[in-house]
Every structure is written in C-alpha cells, then in structure tokens.
Amino acid sequence: MSGCHGPRMRMDPGLHQDRKPSWIKVRLPNDPVFWSTKSLITDLNLVTVCEEAQCPNRWECWGQGTATFMIAGEKCTRACGFCAVKTAKPDALEDDEPHRVAEATRRMKLNHVVITAVARDDLSDGGAEHFQRTIEAVRALNPGIIIEVLVPDFNDRDWALRMVMDARPHIFNHNLETVERLTPLVRSRAKYARSLTVLRKAKEMVDGKVASKSGMMLGLGERRGEVLQAMDDLLDHGVTVLTLGQYLRPTVKHLPVVRYLHPDEFAELKEAALAKGFRHVASGPLVRSSYHAADFRPELDILDDIDKSAGAVTDLQPEDLPIPAAREEILRASVGR
Fold first, then answer.
1. Among 33, 45, 85, 114, which residue is least crowded by beta carbons within 10 Å?
2. Which of the two residues, 179 and 110, has the higher pLDDT score?
C-alpha cells in the first residue's frame, strides 16, 4: 500500500455520465409499513441517513420496517465530494437522543439496528461518547438486539474509538469509500491508511470479538486492479464483510459519475471478494453500507470463532456474546420512559 500525497485532485465535471442506465431503478413506496416507519421517525424527531444521504433503497428498507439512525445531528463538519449530507456548523448534541433512538427500536420491534453519525470534528471525541450512550440505551431498552455501528474515523484518536468499542457493538463498520488513489479527491480530510488503521484497532480493542465491515462506491474512475488491491488491504486489517455499490451523483455540485458498472461486473467483483476471503459480500448497483444489513448476520461468525477457539460443541447464539451490562443511569432513564 503506497502513500497518497500532494495537492487536492480535481475531476473534470465533463466526465459525468448524466443518462442513467436501465438497471438503475428505484422503487417508489407502496407499502403501508413505509408510511408508519416514516411517521414514527418524525414522531420521535429522529434523523436517518436514509433520507439525509438520499439512499436509493429507503423505500424498500422503510417498507420492511428498518432504518439506519443518524445521531449527532444532520450537519457534517466535512465536505466529501460524494456525500449528500449538508456541511455546516453542527448544532449541540441532544442529550435525550440516545433514548429516542432506543424507543424507536422498541416500537419497530427491531432485531438489528444500524447507528451512524455525521463527522463531528468540532467535538474533541468526534461524537464517540454519544455513540456509546446510544448503544447502551438501545441495549437497555431492547435486550438481545444486534447493534451495528457505522462510524467516522474520530481523527484516529484511540481513546475516542475505545469509548465506542467499550459499549461492545456486534458489528463495526467504517467505510473505505474508494481506492487509495482517489481518496484525496473523494473524501474530505479522511485518509486511506487512517481508515484501515481504525478498522484494525477497533477489532484489536475487543480481542477480535466484533465483526468488521467496510464499503466502497464504484464508478468514480477507479481501476479494477485498484479495487482488488483495496480488498486485499481490508482483509489485511481484519475486515470480513464488504459492500460494493454504484456511486450516484446527489447534485451537480458533487463529483461526476465517470462510469456506470453493469450488474455483471458487480457480480464478478463479489466472486473475486469471496475468493479472496471475505465472509459476506453485497455487491450491486444499488447496494449501500446498510443495505439488508440484518440478512448477513456476521455476528454469528464471531460466535463461530469463539466456539472453535474454545473447542466447544454448544450452539452459541448472539446473546452469548460477552456484552457488558448497561450502566445503571442508562437503565433508569430507559425504564422511566
């Protein structure tokens, strides 16, 4: 893995492929569950990355009663060239937000929740404590739920990352987003090597007892060899779950789409990733980080590893993972709601 330095790159907006191919299709909502999910999110004054990032699958996911909750506000301190989330000075953290997210998981009867956040470089911990409090609140109100987090890099501050990992999510997701060469162009302030380091450290902090996940967007001008190299880099840093999806330009102010990959290419990349050693791969034009997140169940891989290392013959379940109990103040607050 080579270093990537030098001035910020520019991409010719004339490269943009404005006409979308026939396989880029988004289903419009026709399920009453979609509207009840939307109503619940509005009622609890919550933010979802589904809406803020203009996810093409939100109709499908909300129709199934699932959502990815975005905590710590809807204003990001970074200005990534691909992202639809607004860049602005963030508002103060809302102290009761962790409990509102927990209440949403209870009302929706979720077995699997994904919690993400904007980058909060204005906070010394990057929002890590808010992640920790949200994880603990969700677990207190909805015991047995599988908790997946999709986090920023916390500027590679170990003490901040440890706060998240001390709350023991089952699945730790941090997206690489693109290949090394394009990182300075695509990702504001983020660094390719730093993201890999964050993925490795998170797993080490809990002695490997977490499923590590990462994702990439394709169609930004990357080469196949670079994508394969990124796969190798992720595997070398302990990642076992990979998502690959087509980059879709949110507005004319964002990076252009250089190429739309055919579904067959995504299928080929999935086979290549599985052959390299990834345990779970979602690869397709409309795949996003949290797409059908509950379907993979990578948390079972951890139990399988624990089972093998212990030489056990029992059939372990996710609730058998060594998860700490929620702090007493979190329990009191949840019970009081």
1. 45
2. 179
**Alpha-carbon span 311 to 309, nearest angstrom:** 6
Neighbouring CB atoms inside 10 A of 173's CB total 26
pLDDT band for position 152 (cuts 50, 70, 90): very high
Q: Binning pLDDT at 50, 70 and 90, where does residue 252 land? A: confident
Spell out the residues 6+ positions from residue 77 whose beta carbon is closer than 8 angstroms to its own: 87, 89, 90, 118, 119, 120, 121, 122
Q: Starting from the edge strand earliest in sequence, which strands make up the sheet with 241-246, in order?
A: 68-71, 112-117, 146-150, 171-173, 211-218, 241-246, 280-284
Higher pLDDT, 117 or 323: 117
Contact 94, 129 (CB under 8 A): no
| Cβ atoms of residues 73 and 123 within 8 Å | no
Show Cβ contacts of residue 271 under 8 Å, excluding neighbours closer than 6 positions.
Answer: none
Q: What is the pLDDT of residue 330?
A: 56
CA 254/CA 234 separation, integer angstroms: 26
Q: Report the distance separating Cα 175 and Cα 172, nearest Å.
A: 10
